[in-house]
């Protein structure tokens, strides 16, 4: 097994998180910066944007998310995300995408798709990197309901579109091992 697959096996949705990081806060920040720099993007458009909510902003974010739903989500669920050390907010800069659509009109319809692909690659690579550091994480999608809240709370520039939220922190309890699947259902070999 390669180091990559070993790291990906560590990457799991961990919901029982706490504020006891097994590494320094700076190690997590450095990982996010480095991965954001290294993840490819079609036409080198660099459409991915990231905000890391820590400390009081972490608490305010999840309290605000609960309020944005008017009690229609379980407080316990929101509190489990709030209990994490921090949250990585993933965005696409639609202004960057539009500029490339104008510059390369033949590919205009593809740039939004490519930006989503790049954002997905960013998410999985950061998630795997966190797992390698022993940091637990999960991915949430409370947008678009929380878009205005996030925009106001973090002074998000116009054109940034929220894609996902990734609470991260110390692992309170490990997940059960993943059930082995028959991968031949999803992978076809053609020769």
Description:
Helix content is 44%, strand content 16%. The chain is α+β, with helices and mostly antiparallel strands and 191 residues long. It has one domain (3-185): NADH Oxidase (3-Layer(aba) Sandwich). The longest helix has 22 residues, at 111-132. The protein is globular, with a radius of gyration of 18 Å.
Radius of gyration: 18 Å
Number of helices: 7
Number of strands: 5
Please give the largest β-sheet: 5 strands, antiparallel
End-to-end CA span: 24 Å
Low-confidence stretches are none
* Content-based structural category: alpha+beta
Instruction: Please trace the helix and strand order, writing H or E for each element.
Output: HEHEHHEHHEHE
CATH top level label: Alpha Beta
Supply the number of structural domains: 1
Could you say which overall geometry the principal axes of the C-alpha atoms support?
globular
Give the secondary structure arrangement, pairings included.
Blueprint: H1 3-10, E1 17-18, H2 25-38, E2 48-54, H3 55-68, H4 75-82, E3 86-93, H5 94-103, H6 111-132, E4 136-137, H7 147-154, E5 160-171
Helix pairs in contact: 2-6, 3-4
Notable characteristics:
single chain; 191 residues; alpha+beta; NADH Oxidase; 7 helices; 44% helix; 16% strand
Short description:
The chain has 191 residues and is an alpha+beta fold. It has helices at 3-10, 25-38, 55-68, 75-82, 94-103, 111-132, 147-154; strands spanning 17-18, 48-54, 86-93, 136-137, 160-171.
